[in-house]
Amino acid sequence: MMASSYDEMSPKDLLALYYRRLFPYSPFYRWLSYGGVRKNYLTNREFSFTLDGDVYIRYLSFSDQSELEKELLAKNPCKIDIGAVFSHKPKDHKAIQASAFRAEEKELVFDIDMTDYDDVRNCCSGAAICEKCWPLMTIAIHILHDALTEDFGYKHLLFVYSGRRGVHCWVCDESARQLNAAGRSAVAEYLSVVKGGESQTKKVHFRGSSLHSSLRRAADVIKRYFPALALDNQDILGTPEQYEQVLALVPSEKARMALREKWSGKNGTSRERWADLEGELASHNKEVTNCVQEIQFQYVYPRLDVNVSKGVNHLLKSPFSIHPKTGRVCVPIEYSRVDEFNPLEVPTINELCRQLDEYAAKESADQDSGDQEPSRKRKRVPEWSKTEMEAGVAVFVDFIKKMELEYQPVKQESRAMDMSW
Question: CA-CA distances (angstroms) from residue 185 to 17, 188, 202, 316, 329?
Fold first, then answer.
């Protein structure tokens, strides 16, 4: 098929090709099976599919990888969502009393959406993103990672690009999966610093002169990124309209008047004006304790959708789902290289299909020229490894392998108990 032909294919046909040749079924099944330590863990897991025409199907469940694969190939969903592990098979929920059908476990999840930063973004708005505002997501990943690992002791965090304008975090530790709604709410509230709706001007309030250790750690992350992100990329003090938004967060009327007088009618960069602000607030120290950090946090600290995190039965878009608006793959993000991640370089389903053809053409040319051994002698490789999707799957597989190291002792202990009987 010619490269341009993929742009002319219908989304349904592209999805059919994706699920037939590229979706990483085996790693996906390994992830949600969690080593098979608990019987029926995958069987009782809810999936939902969004089909062409916005048809939404909930309470799907599958007995094994083969059944899951068969249904994906038959339905070719535009979007896959993952829900909770229930007390019974979700597909049988209509035959079970409502009181007996309970959501028992699910990964602790977090959803960070760029649209929640629209009041502090000057480069984009709505669903649009660019390299100037994406560092907001980078900061969010760093702060979440540090807090969840250091304050809560979680080890298995999977960060996934949402496919359009945000990031999802899946905390897969057993203790996280077993949290009830109250426990999830407590973790989400602990991590929520920016609070208040559109009508509230000041959304960050720190009490006392000393910050909590978690906030100090977050402040260190913010300090690294704030100058380039807020002052250069977003130019938050570049115009009167923009600097008035910042001055509205300063509690001292005297300090606001002094800065406004200094900036009014004069040219100046955001970095120069930020230096002015820090100097002015230093002279009003008792009246504006923590003000500089409160401004920094309001502009760049992670903005979480608490409702997504606190519900055990809340569904979230699956890794390796295709975003229906952009066609991009929801790929895992390697934490150690999060600063290098560029969402605009994530391949679309069209590009992946073209890469499969290009790989096949190169392979055929190499074979014809004698540079490659006959296909019958070569080791078969997964189709996704022939495309740019390989990097995302590699991150996913590495994540799963690290989790599986913890399953082995549990399995051995279980077998020992069985033998003792």
Answer: 40, 5, 23, 16, 29
